[in-house]
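Weekly structure sync - notes
Attendees: PM, LS, DV (DV joined late)
Agenda: review two folding runs queued last week.

Item 1: First target. Sequence and structure tokens pasted below for the record.
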Amino acid sequence: MAGPHGLGPRGFLTDEEKKNMPKVSAGLIKRIFGYLKPYWVQFIFVFIAILLSSVVGLFPSIITGRIVDQALVGKDLQLLIKLLILAFCTLAVSQIIGVIESYINSWISRRIIFDMKNQMYDHLQHMPHSFFTSEKQGDIITRMNTDISGVSSVISGTLSSIVSNVATVVTTLVALFSMSWQLAIVGIIVIPLLILPTKTVGRTRWKLLSESQAKQDEMNQLINETLSVSGSMLVKLFTREKEEYERFVKVNEEVTKLSLKETRSGSWFRVVMGMFTQIGPLLIYFAGGYFIINNLDTTLTVGTITATVALVNRLYRPVESLLNIGVDFTRSLALFTRIFDYFDKEATIVSPENGKKPDVQNADIAYEHVSFSYIPEKPLLKDINFRVPGGKMYAVVGPSGSGKSTVVNFLPRLYDVDAGRVTIGGVDVRDFDLQYLRDCIGVVTQETYLFNGTIRENLLYARESATEEELEEACKIANIHDYITSQPDGYDTIVGNRGLKLSGGEKQRISIARVILKDPKILILDEATSALDSISESSIQDALEHMMEGRTSIVIAHRLTTILKADSILVVKDGVIAEQGTHDELLARNGVYRELYETQFRKVIDYESGHQE
């Protein structure tokens, strides 16, 4: 919140801003100006408009002096009218130039934001999956929206403000000293008096504003947690409405008190500033009157004094604003630094130049001495070796956290191996054209994600060119067509945010239909039936088997019914393939698989058997 004349709390840096103050370098400045360079012609027009506006803005004050000296003292009504019209015209011209300058400035700002947002979105789209698992979603959105949008205030605010204020100060000083250098000095010496109260009161207001913002953030967090879908349900289930209300009232009261303190401080600040801004004109009137009364300057007139007062008042605002250049400049650099920090994050998983596009139909998949870790000192997978013959279905099982999902994520290159290699048909997946590779692989994930749109839009995400018949056929295979057509809007039914309007089983079946529509050569099912009850699972098991026919498939599952149909089972434990074989072979070994069978799969079998009885 800025005080009068542009000063106040904004004239100070927070402790965090001081700590993270960006390092000014020629490279950083050059990089920033790289975004301004395409619009240098428009910037020239902006600067010309600013200069014209500053010059034209002098005339109303100068004309005021002529009105006093020539029209009023000379009692010339005709001249008075002419001068008033001229003053009005110069004001109008100044305003029109200001509007033009503001529009060009806004146009430049919006175009630069347009360019930066496009560049950022494209860059983030190509970031590896690990980036999105490690970065906070809120930080990503802040960079995309708040930070880049803030560039507008840098261009139309900081940059243009500096040029405009400098032009105003220079032209005003020239006009002041050309009329009366004595009165000009009197008007200027009051400027330090404006700085002292501003800095003192400003620090107090800045502290109060910071505390108020911290409490406001606490209130927003409370609202977000307790009034969200999941949060409100939790509050209701544990009957905590009264306690949460009392928490809210307490925080709300603190926010209100701090806000009132800041407002009260600001009111007194405006009173003090208002008094100090009147000292300059009063001193000018005194000095001018003293010179005239004592005949010390015979060239000095009442009109000159009046014009000087008007010009000095015009001088205060830009001078005070220029005092904050350091803070505005630092914040502007910090804004660009945060944006560039994201631009500089390397897209480690990229498509190689002239990437290969081999036929992967019924091609073997091989993992050769694969090792991987999310944290360097904590290896997750160590020397993984196995081969999935073309057209076969292999199941991957293991304790929670053993790395089952990570193993399959190497195929579509959501992650790249640290050592070893993964091949399809003898070709390293890192040598594939990345888009071609991912087009060949269909994945049904454990956590189904649907966009907040219609069922049709979510299905066509797999293949935009799919016909209505293909769409319906895929849904019939996934056993979701009847449900969709029973809805009032059919395939145009809105699924809600993340598909919240659908049950887990319905979302999962739409996800399966989406993969069926993609018609991939290789299939990965990561707990694909985990969200389904026994009846739902049974109803689409045939569909999954039909989809896996003729495709090389890797299935991660806790359901024994799925594992039993696998051509071979891979048991992952402690970062290695502990065992491999068929269900009967692994049971006979009395090893890790046998333990999983007794602790996990047997419970499911007993549960389902009990319900069938």
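Item 2: Second target, run right after the first with the same settings.
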Amino acid sequence: METFELNLSMDELKKRTHKDYLITKKFLKADAPEYLSLKEGDQLALKHLVKAAAILEKINMQLDCKHNLAVKEFLEEEIKKGNKQAELTKILFDAQKGINAIDTMSNPIRLIKGIEEKPGKGVYPEDLSKEEFHSVLIRMIKEGKVDEVKAILTQRSVVVRAAEDLAGIDYIDYFSEDFAKMADELELAAKFSTNTDFNEYLILQAKALRTADPMLDAFADKKWATLQDTPLEFTITRENYEDEMTGTIVENEELSNLLKEHNITPIPKDFLGGRVGIINKEGTQALMAIKKYLPLLAENMPYNREYVQTISAEADSEQTMVDVDMVMASGDVGEYRGGITLAENLPNSDKLSLTIGGGRRNVYHRQIRFISDKKKLQERLDAILDKEQHKYYLDEADHWFTIGHENAHSLGPKEGSEKLGKYRNIIEENKADMGALAFVDLLTDVGMYTPEQRLQIIVTTITDNFLKSKPTLSQAHRVRTVMQNKYFSERGAYDITKDGKIHVNIDKVVPIAQKMLSEIIRIQIDGDFNKAEQYVLDNFVWTENMEIIAKKLQKVSKALNGTLETELADKLLGK
């Protein structure tokens, strides 16, 4: 067995695993009414879905870092020997689902000495530099190895060395044994599950796990995106926010031109997550209220005649939405690294299913969005928000904003964002936020929101936009928050009062959001890397106002890390 040297001291580990510093999100308990009220067949199916998600976590750990599984084994053996440092390290390892992460203060967490996070994570050779990567691809193309380069630059491949070349192996082939075990579990779940549509999806997804064929995934994705009235939720999430290597290609003019000449689009690598849950019918019904307005929003998007978007202004929107009581979040979707996902809109625009008539599906994570400590929330408001505007702050309004954000992912250009390289995700997340805010007045006019809800969404969103620390450029979800803060401040959307509190100038917010949305859509349409870079760098500035509020937030919340408590999933896994 491989041995490692633990990086964090006992004092540091004790602090980070203390309840004041470790946020805990509690998923469904073993005796949850949501679980007990399921039909027996669905309870049996849930057990197999949880097992499938656990296998997927093992796969994604290897995509994340080549050492993760060996470190996990090492920690488990050390714990058996009574090693307390290993025991506390394992708590953080399980929470962030790997060796390397960042905390809520945007500081890197390295659990093992000597193993740094790589731009290519575990999907590229560890010793591959950006410069070598580019030069090898250029040489391979010039040598006529175009198909080999295509295999390297798909979102589905693990890249390995092949003599002087590189080679891309489809992850279904690379992890064939584990994916086959996953497929077995999905097929067993389909035998017990009571819902025909859901079972059809599981069978399609199982088939896609046995054969390395992107079209099989497309068929599964297309079916998954139609699911609306099912008791259970199971998703294989495939998103490419973590790969910082592939996005560097657009920075190399010679390589970019060669790829364009051979009609090769470099797409960042997918990282995989598993979501298992029980559909909450009441929450889902509330979500569906916005669906009838999606064509109206599509029609009001900036420059909407210059691109194709997932939502059509002329037809019924191919968009399903579900609210889910969470049982398990494995792999990429469950990693607590500075934060954790509230909801997802999938498949992403790079996925094949969208080209064969498939739609998208929004899934919202109930237990992650719940506020467990109202007292702490009030302390936060007392510290940072003008007292006269407390009446407009509502934590549920953050959920309304999230709904707008997820639906906005389906609006705007659905092609060409790869040209924006490492800025594509920052720009896309910024677009989704501004889409959510830009249409608040329109949705109020048509009756989706009441005038009071409009005020609550605007004040809550601006208040929640302030962070505890400046993020790194690799944190797309947080970088766009800083960009918006600077943009809104310069245009008068909010002021900082003499006593250091946020005062939202409510009627200015939506017009400013509309302006920023328009600028972002223009960048996406143009597909100009340099314009995207300039836009991000111009707006990604940590201002004095942000630092004032950040220091107050740090006093209110000591939290540095987070973890998931999954009692029902653990029971179903036999832990």
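Discussion on item 2: Residues 279 and 324 are 5 Å apart (CA to CA).
Action: LS to circulate a short write-up before next sync.
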